[in-house]
Amino acid sequence: MALMAPRWPPPVGSDSIQHTWDAYHLSLRNLIFEFDWCRVLPASVPVTVFHGTDDPIGDRFHIEKIVGKSKVVNVPGADHHVALEHPEL
Which end of the chain has fewer CB atoms < 10 Å from its terminal CB, N or C? Predict the structure, then answer.
């Protein structure tokens, strides 16, 4: 991973190669399809969701639908790794 994406810190790169189909499938099911986002959003603290405009995976309209009144910020030029690419946000 260090050769393919040297921009990521070593701990991030080493974790990324640990992905398995089971981990992906369980994350998708537990965090996207079956998680009751309405139970936690809106939260008792302000929540901001950052969405990379170049993210081929996320659907901005679905995100806006599930986050309720939380703020959604579309980050121009960012992809699926918006948190790693723009930690200042």
Answer: C
